[in-house]
């Protein structure tokens, strides 16, 4: 549903002549709108901590070396541009699934997963939501953690699902509300869909610990819930690909038949190429074939088949040992820079004289930090310091550099003291 | 173990892709694939346009480029130049700032965005009952695109006259007259898929007159601009005429065929509105739909097209490449028709040269099609549609002889 914002200037006669007189002005996207506002700001000290796109320590977009090498390799092959299959590039989907599930996964060996190439994470969630809407007749309910990525809600709602929430973030600790989550999960009706962020929770950066994941997995199984994992930051959280996929793999080992969305926007820096995957873990290979046929029926009227470029780059990296090695190092490097920025931000806040507890800045993981700032404080930070972030107090650590971390700490201290 | 997906039925495969699969598995060395709509050279090979290769090198060499997200609506220089291609450089509508666009995933994506928007905002809010008319026959995916966007009433409008092998103008106009007001009509801008039969200018003018009078919504599908006649402007005549008639309309553009960029998914939904204010609000709502579908579109293909269209020498080279493709198709049409006439194949075959674009509706019936596939390893759609690009100077004799044999032996 859309906020009703009446458009000021248009004379009513013009609206009557148009088919679109009744079309309201849509509000700017809460996340992407931040970047647009940032662009308009002329302050030389402005900082864009809105959208989660990685920046190097000079605040510049970072094209991974393994990506450039993969592109050169691909260019030398002089490939054609024929349509991909509806489900995408086989080399990509295979290695995409392997990356998430682990090369030795029993699921892969038995062929009981179907993995299709999607338009990055959003496209994957869109397909997943619509697949569940069409075929998961047992329940319309999707439980999102509170809070979750802002775009989850409209995606599932648009697909005809009902949005519900379970406790997740504890504002009093800026950490995980484990007991609250378990309590809410224990009350979820059977067969409901539960959305879990595989790692580097967006927007809070708060992840369950392995022992907590184990308990959640047990309870979810007891409640007979359908698990939808969103993994947009594999590698980005801890710097280790396997560690970041631990929760996904644990759930599968425990027998959960999950559905999984993956994005390569962040961990390969392939944002605009739109590289992602959607996986359904089925009972067996026969079921996987049926599910695959239905996924294709969903995809064909959306965009027919997915774009080649990014998938070809990702597949090349994942399937070329030398490039894969470089990639692992670069992902590790990106995660490390963020960890360092967290430490520097916390230290700088202390130096500014802040008496508040900023431990969560260090404890949280991944690209985002849930600062704990209230909307009014965020507004001040933006207006007075030209620091752009989302209203919920989320900052993208990727936008922090060693040259601006001091300024950021200064601004945060100013609006919170 | 009870599975959540235990009841998921096996879906029937999409016909055109199954055809390609069957062709791949056929061991007959003489096999010919006249199925899926992609251009082929005279060697039967895919063709990456020379201008595309050139621009790819430019992109690779440009170190200032990265892989950052595009804006939700896409690359601005792509959107505006793509709309100019459809509407003309000097389009008054563009000059009046009432033309906008959404970069989409191919022509399919553009149709989808348009359909989703119309369902939400056209003829009331969320009016799923607005009839959507698609030509009989039409590209098979049209039905699903609009149905999946929520439209409950997707119906055919008369178009192809099987007996006379041409346009059923009276039927078409009749359906326009009897359609409920505000119905949406999906029109093929040129090179109608699958029949290759386009209305003449005078016939288009008649269509426009009825549509204006009866307040029907114009939704053009333009997947073959440049490919039909070899001339971009000629192929855009209908779209531009409708603009001069003052319609607010959508035009879904694909650059899959005319740029040979099939797998990069380059499409554009051009929106012509009454004025810039209406346009602005429409685009703001398009953003919402984009955001829950793919967030923002892929950059590679759009960059390629934008650089080409905005660089005069490259633009000229592209038009030349397009003409090369169109000319080869015209040559194959002429050849096939000539050979069938020489063989004295029963029936009339003028429609082969009268039809335009990549496809030809041969007029072969399902039994004859089956014979062609099974006995001659010549793969074509059950509708009798052939892709002219599948013909080469090397296989055209075999195809002509096969059609001859089929028509003679199978009724």
UniProtKB/TrEMBL annotation, chain A:
Q: Which SUPFAM superfamilies match?
A: PLP-dependent transferases (SSF53383)
Homology family: Belongs to the class-I pyridoxal-phosphate-dependent aminotransferase family.
Which transformation does this protein catalyse, written as a reaction? L-aspartate + 2-oxoglutarate = oxaloacetate + L-glutamate
Where does the record locate the signal sequence feature?
none
Gene label: LOC109888368
InterPro entries xrefs: Aminotransferase_I/II_large, Asp_trans, NHTrfase_class1_PyrdxlP-BS, PyrdxlP-dep_Trfase, PyrdxlP-dep_Trfase_major, PyrdxlP-dep_Trfase_small
Ordered alphabetically, the record's keywords are: Aminotransferase, Mitochondrion, Pyridoxal phosphate, Transferase
Per UniProt, subunit arrangement is: Homodimer.
Cofactor(s) recorded for this entry are: pyridoxal 5'-phosphate
Protein name, UniProt field: Aspartate aminotransferase
Location of the protein in the cell? Mitochondrion matrix
Q: What organism is this sequence from?
A: Oncorhynchus kisutch
Any one GO biological process: L-aspartate catabolic process
Q: Which NCBIfam families match?
A: PRK09257.1
Q: Which domain of life is it from?
A: Eukaryota
- What range(s) does the Aminotransferase class I/classII large domain occupy? 45-412
Q: What is its EC number?
A: 2.6.1.1
Q: Record's GO cellular component, any one?
A: mitochondrial matrix
What's the top EC group for this one?
A: transferase
Note, other: In eukaryotes there are cytoplasmic, mitochondrial and chloroplastic isozymes.
Give the GO molecular function terms: L-aspartate:2-oxoglutarate aminotransferase activity; pyridoxal phosphate binding
Automatic annotation (TrEMBL), chain B:
Record's Gene3D superfamilies? Aspartate Aminotransferase, domain 1 (3.90.1150.10), Type I PLP-dependent aspartate aminotransferase-like (Major domain) (3.40.640.10)
Q: Which reaction does it catalyse?
A: 3-sulfino-L-alanine + 2-oxoglutarate = 3-sulfinopyruvate + L-glutamate; L-cysteine + 2-oxoglutarate = 2-oxo-3-sulfanylpropanoate + L-glutamate; L-aspartate + 2-oxoglutarate = oxaloacetate + L-glutamate; (2S)-2-aminobutanoate + 2-oxoglutarate = 2-oxobutanoate + L-glutamate
Keyword tags? Amino-acid biosynthesis, Aminotransferase, Cytoplasm, Pyridoxal phosphate, Transferase
Domain of life per record: Eukaryota
Q: Where does this protein reside within or beyond the cell?
A: Cytoplasm
Q: Which GO terms describe its biological process?
A: aspartate biosynthetic process
The entry's cellular-component GO terms read: cytosol
**What InterPro entries does its record include?**
Aminotransferase_I/II_large, Asp_trans, NHTrfase_class1_PyrdxlP-BS, PyrdxlP-dep_Trfase, PyrdxlP-dep_Trfase_major, PyrdxlP-dep_Trfase_small
EC number from the UniProt entry: 2.6.1.1
Chief site of localization: cytoplasm
All copies of domain Aminotransferase class I/classII large, residue ranges: 30-403
- GO molecular function: any one? pyridoxal phosphate binding
The further comment given in this record reads: In eukaryotes there are cytoplasmic, mitochondrial and chloroplastic isozymes.
Q: How does it assemble?
A: Homodimer.
Q: Belongs to which family?
A: Belongs to the class-I pyridoxal-phosphate-dependent aminotransferase family.
Q: Which NCBIfam families match?
A: PRK09257.1
Q: What is this protein called?
A: Aspartate aminotransferase
What organism is recorded for this protein? Oncorhynchus kisutch (Coho salmon)
- Lineage of source species: Eukaryota, Metazoa, Chordata, Craniata, Vertebrata
């Amino acid at each position: 549903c859309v906020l009703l914002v009446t458009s000021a200037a248009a004379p009513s006669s013009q609206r009557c002549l148009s088919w679109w007189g009744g079309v309201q002005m849509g509000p700017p996207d809460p996340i992407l709108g931040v970047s647009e506002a940032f662009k308009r700001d002329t302050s030389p000290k402005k900082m864009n901590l809105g959208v989660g796109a990685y920046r190097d320590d000079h605040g510049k977009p970072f094209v991974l070396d393994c990506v450039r090498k993969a592109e050169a390799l691909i260019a030398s092959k002089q490939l054609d541009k024929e349509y991909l299959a509806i489900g995408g590039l086989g080399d990509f989907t295979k290695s995409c699934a392997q990356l998430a599930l682990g090369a030795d996964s029993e699921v892969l060996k038995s062929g009981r997963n179907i993995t299709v190439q999607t338009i990055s994470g959003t496209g994957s969630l869109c397909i997943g939501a619509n697949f569940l809407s069409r075929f998961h007749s047992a329940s319309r309910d999707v439980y999102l953690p509170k809070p979750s990525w802002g775009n989850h809600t409209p995606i599932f709602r648009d697909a005809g699902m009902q949005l519900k929430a379970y406790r997740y973030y504890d504002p009093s600790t800026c950490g995980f509300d484990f007991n609250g989550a378990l309590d809410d999960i224990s009350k979820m009706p059977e067969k409901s869909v539960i959305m879990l962020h595989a790692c580097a929770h967006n927007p809070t950066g708060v992840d369950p610990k392995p022992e907590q994941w184990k308990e959640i997995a047990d309870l979810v199984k007891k409640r007979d819930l359908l698990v939808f994992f969103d993994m947009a930051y594999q590698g980005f959280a801890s710097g280790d690909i396997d560690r970041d996929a631990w929760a996904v793999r644990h759930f599968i080992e425990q027998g959960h038949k999950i559905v999984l969305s993956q994005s390569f926007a962040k961990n390969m820096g392939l944002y605009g190429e739109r590289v992602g995957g959607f996986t359904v873990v089925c009972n067996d290979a026969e079921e996987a074939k049926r599910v695959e046929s239905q996924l294709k029926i969903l995809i064909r009227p959306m965009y027919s088949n997915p774009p080649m470029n990014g998938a070809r780059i990702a597949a090349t990296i994942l399937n070329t040992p030398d490039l894969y090695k470089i990639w692992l190092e670069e992902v590790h490097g990106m995660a490390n820079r963020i960890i360092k920025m967290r430490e520097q931000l916390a230290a700088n806040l202390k130096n500014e004289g802040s008496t508040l507890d900023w431990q969560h800045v260090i404890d949280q993981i991944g690209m985002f930090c849930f600062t704990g700032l209230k909307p009014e404080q965020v507004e001040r930070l933006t207006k007075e310091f030209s620091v752009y972030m989302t209203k919920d107090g989320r900052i993208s650590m990727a936008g922090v550099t060693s040259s601006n971390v001091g300024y950021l700490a200064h601004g945060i201290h100013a609006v919170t003291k | 173990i009870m599975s959540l997906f235990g009841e998921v039925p096996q879906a029937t495969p999409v016909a055109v892709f199954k055809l390609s699969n069957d062709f791949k598995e056929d061991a007959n060395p003489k096999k010919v694939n006249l199925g899926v709509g992609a251009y082929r050279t005279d060697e039967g090979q895919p063709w990456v346009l020379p201008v595309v290769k050139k621009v790819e090198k430019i992109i690779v060499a440009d170190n200032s480029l990265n892989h950052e997200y595009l804006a939700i609506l896409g690359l601005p220089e792509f959107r505006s130049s793509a709309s100019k291609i459809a509407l003309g450089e000097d389009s008054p509508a563009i000059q009046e700032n009432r033309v906008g666009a959404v970069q989409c995933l191919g022509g399919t994506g553009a149709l989808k965005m348009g359909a989703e928007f119309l369902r939400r905002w056209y003829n009331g809010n969320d009016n799923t009952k607005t009839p959507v008319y698609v030509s009989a026959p039409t590209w098979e995916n049209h039905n699903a695109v609009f149905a999946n966007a929520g439209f409950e009433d997707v119906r055919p409008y008369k178009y192809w006259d099987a007996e006379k092998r041409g346009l059923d103008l009276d039927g078409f106009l009749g359906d326009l007259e009897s359609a409920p007001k505000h119905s949406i009509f999906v029109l093929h801008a040129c090179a109608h898929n699958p029949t290759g039969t386009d209305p003449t200018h005078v016939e288009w003018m008649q269509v426009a007159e009825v549509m204006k009078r009866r307040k029907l919504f114009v939704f053009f599908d333009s997947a073959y601009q440049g490919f039909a006649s070899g001339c971009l402007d000629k192929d855009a005549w209908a779209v531009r005429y409708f603009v001069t008639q003052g319609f607010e309309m959508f035009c879904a553009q694909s650059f899959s065929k005319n740029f040979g960029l099939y797998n990069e998914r380059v499409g554009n939904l051009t929106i012509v509105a009454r004025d810039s204010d209406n346009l602005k609000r429409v685009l703001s709502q398009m953003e919402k739909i984009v955001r829950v579908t793919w967030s923002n579109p892929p950059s590679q293909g759009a960059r390629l097209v934008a650089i080409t269209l905005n660089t005069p020498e490259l633009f000229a080279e592209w038009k030349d490449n397009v003409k090369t493709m169109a000319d080869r198709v015209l040559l194959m049409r002429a050849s096939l028709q000539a050979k069938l006439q020489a063989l004295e194949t029963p029936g009339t075959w003028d429609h082969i040269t009268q039809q335009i674009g990549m496809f030809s509706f041969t007029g072969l019936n399902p039994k004859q099609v089956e014979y062609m596939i099974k006995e001659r390893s010549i793969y074509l759609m059950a509708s009798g549609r052939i892709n002219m690009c599948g013909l080469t100077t090397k296989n055209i004799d075999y195809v002509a002889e096969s059609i001859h044999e089929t028509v003679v032996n199978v009724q």
